[in-house]
Design goal:
This protein is mainly β. The protein has 1 helix and 8 strands, in the order H-E-E-E-E-E-E-E-E. The radius of gyration is 15 Å and the shape is elongated.
């Protein structure tokens, strides 16, 4: 999948980052997620993770992605992740802090990929970049 490197982060995540920078202020709590999960969307996810794909046999499900330590303001997630997809068009990859429900962290537009029938989508290297 081809991404353009302009990931819009959700308001939830931006607010958590800013709260961390405020220091140990009253009411500021943020625990880093144990894992980050990639999702697929057939429309713009907006700020909430809308338009996440559902259905299929085997069923679509978010997949955990693994990243190296941050360097130069970004994290690279590898290796490739294969996600089951029903008949749809994949337009965005999203990022969450849970395999189901959870908090939406942001998204990355991808080159549209049309699935006329059940198939698999391969998410190649993902980069969460604060410099983009």
């Amino acid at each position: 999948s081809e991404r353009d490197g302009r990931m819009p982060y959700s308001s939830y995540l931006k607010n958590k980052w800013l709260d961390v920078l405020r220091g140990n202020a009253a009411g500021v709590t943020f625990t880093a997620p144990a894992a980050i999960y990639a999702s697929l969307h057939n429309g713009a996810p907006g700020d909430t993770g809308a338009n996440e794909i559902t259905g299929g046999t085997p069923a679509y499900a978010r997949k955990s992605i693994t990243g190296a330590a941050a360097a130069g303001g970004s994290i690279t997630y590898e290796p490739d992740v294969v996600i089951d997809v029903p008949a749809t068009t994949v337009m965005h990859v999203g990022y969450w802090d849970a395999v189901t429900a959870g908090n939406f962290l942001g998204s990355d537009p991808v080159t549209n990929e049309v699935f006329a029938a059940q198939g698999t989508y391969t998410l190649t290297q993902s980069i969460l970049d604060l410099n983009a």
